[in-house]
Amino acid sequence: MGNHILLHSVLGSLNLSVKLILIIVPLMISYEFLENSKIFKKILNFLYLFIKPMGFSKNASISMLTGIFLGITYGSGILIAQSSKNRITKLDAALTAIFLSMCHAVIEDTLIFVAIGGNGAYMLITRIIIATLITYILYKYMSSKISQR
Amino acid sequence: MNKAQIKTNLNNGFKNGFSVSFKLIKTIIPFYIAIDLLNHTRFAKVLGDTLSPFMSIFGLSGKMSLAIISGYLVNLYAAIAVLIPLHPDWKEVTIVGLMTGIAHNLVVEGAILHKTGMNAFLTISIRIAVSIFAGISLNLLFKVIYG
Description:
The structure holds two protein chains of two kinds. Chain A is mostly helical. Chain A folds into two domains: 1-36; 38-148, no CATH class. Chain A is built from seven helices and no strands. The longest helix of chain A is centred in the first third of the chain and has 34 residues, at 2-35. By secondary structure, chain B is an all-alpha fold. Chain B has one domain (26-146). Chain B has helices at 3-38, 42-55, 65-73, 76-83, 90-102, 106-114, 120-146. In chain B, helix 1 (3-38) packs across helix 4 (76-83) and helix 6 packs across helix 7 (120-146). The chains are: A mainly alpha, B mainly alpha. Chains A and B meet through helix 1, helix 4, helix 5, helix 6 and helix 7 of A and helix 1, helix 4, helix 5, helix 6 and helix 7 of B.
C-alpha cells in the first residue's frame, strides 16, 4: 500500500514535468520572437511613459526594464553599476530597488503559472498595478521628506 | 525578419525553454513527492483545517498555505510543486501565482537587493505585506466578477 502511494507520487511528478516542458519550450520560443521584433521596442517606449510619473529618470529606466524582463540579478547588477558611477540619484536607486523587489522577471514568473492553468493577464496586470502604486506612494513620501530638509 | 534571425530565435527559445524547464523540474520532483505523500497523513489535514479560516481571505484552501510559504522561502518552482498535488482550480493558481510572484525567494533576493543599498529587512517586509494585500484584492475582484 505504501509503495503504491509512492509510485503514484513519482509518476505524478514526472507527468507534471513532461507537461511543463511541452508548454514552456514553445512559450519561450514565442517570447524570443517577440523580444527581437519591432513591436518590442514600441512596448519599451510605451512602458517608459508609465514609469516616468513614478519619479524615475531615463537612466533608471534601463535597470528598471532589464529587471522587469530579465530578473532581479541583472536588474540590480546594472543598478549597482549605475549608482557607483553616480549616474542616478539615491532616490532613483531606492525607487528602482523597491519596484523591482515586487516586479521582476515577470514574463517567466507569469508563464510558469500559466503553464499550470493560471490566468496570466490577472497575475501580470494586478502585480504591475500594485507595484506601481506602492512605488508611487514611496516616491511621494520620500520626496516630501527630502524637501522638508 | 531574415532566416538567420529566425534560426537564432528558435535556438535561444529552445535553450531558454529547456533551461527554465529543468530548473523547474529539479525543484518540482522532490517537493511534489514530499507534498503528495504528506497529503495522505493526518498532519496535513490538521494543518489545513487550522489554517483554512486564515487562507479563506485569499480564496485558498488551508493546505495551500504550504505553497505560499514554500514560495516565500524557496522559489516559485517550489510553490508550484506544492500546489499541483492539491488540485487547484484556475482562480487558486492565479492567486497563488500573484502572491508568490510578488514575494518569493525572500532571503536570497533580499540579500541581492541589500547590495543596491536597500535594507533587506525592509524589502522583505514590504514584499510580504504587499503580497498579502494583493492576494486579498484579487480574491475580492474574483468574487465580484465570478461570484
